[in-house]
Amino acid sequence: MKKWFVRSLWLIALVALAGVTAIAQKNKTGSLECNDNWSGNDKRLERHCEIREQTVAVGDAITVDSGKNGGIQVKGSDRNDVLVRTRVESAAPSRNEAIELAKQVRIETGGSRIQSTGPEQKRDAWWSASFEILVPRRSNLALTAHNGGIAISDVNGRIEFNGLNGGVVLRRVGGNVHGSTTNGGLVVELDGSRWDGEELNVKTTNGGVMMSVPENYSARLETGTVNGHVSTDFPVTVQGRISKQLSM
């Protein structure tokens, strides 16, 4: 009989579950949009925001790098191609300078690699590019975000992600999923009765963890923590020695 594994949560410094809840709520807001909420620290700067869209062909793997600033949302859909929606934000001492700065930001999509490039960032002239990407439900992904969150939903495939200074939300994913984030929370929402694929192996450093598992879900969960705790609201039977690293 084949064993189904959900390997998860090899953690360092488990903290701040409230921050993870905020991430989950934020990602429920849907499509990217420009609004009046200022995302920079210097209120003296003028801000410009615009939404761009483009369609690209599906390759063996969809690789996304959001650059120095910006998050990534990937959503499975019934499409046969890839729709890339990008929110480009810029800030500069004047409105015209902010608009000109945004014009220099390029979204490159060659060879199923999606990335943002632009001029050098300065304290009084910065830009960011956040992606919302609609892909076929069976897709392979490789995602990198440096200062922004990562959210993946309704995708099954070979999925790899790497985050820094941002949370990660995984909803209804499957396949062979590996990834980590630093300085950000982790939210995992499983569905169905068992894991559809090879394994889920994810971790966070300096972030909280929330995991939602349907009733009667069949899986093996391995979890550990350093300088933190693990809590669960579903029944767990523990056998053997209990230490800092706990296997359930």
Q: What descriptive keywords fit this protein?
A:
single chain; 248 residues; mainly beta; eight-stranded mixed beta sheet; seven-stranded mixed beta sheet; 2 helices; 18 strands; globular; disordered N terminus
The helix-and-strand class reads: mainly beta
Radius of gyration from the alpha-carbon trace, in angstroms: 19 Å
pLDDT under 50 segments (min length 5)?
1-29
Separation, N- and C-terminal Cα atoms: 20 Å
The largest sheet, given as strand count, sense and whether it forms a barrel, is:
8 strands, mixed
- What best-fitting shape do the alpha-carbon axes yield? globular
In total, the number of strands is 18
Beta-strand portion reads 35-45%
Mean pLDDT value = 81
User: What letter string, H or E per element, gives the SSE order?
Assistant: EHEEEEHEEEEEEEEEEEEE
Number of helices: 2
Helix content: under 10%
Strand order of the largest sheet: 2-5-8-4-10-12-14-16
How is this structure best described in words?
- With 248 residues, the protein is mostly beta strands.
- 8% of the residues lie in helices and 45% in strands.
- It contains 2 helices and 18 strands.
- It has helices at residues 17-26, 95-103; strands at 5-10, 46-56, 62-65, 72-77, 82-92, 106-108, 113-117, 126-136, 141-145, 150-153, 156-164, 168-171, 174-182, 186-189, 199-205, 209-212, 220-224, 245-247.
- The strands form 3 sheets. Strands 2-5-8-4-10-12-14-16 form an 8-stranded mixed beta sheet. A 7-stranded mixed beta sheet has the order 6-7-3-9-11-13-15, with no helix packed on it.
- The protein is globular and about 60 Å long.
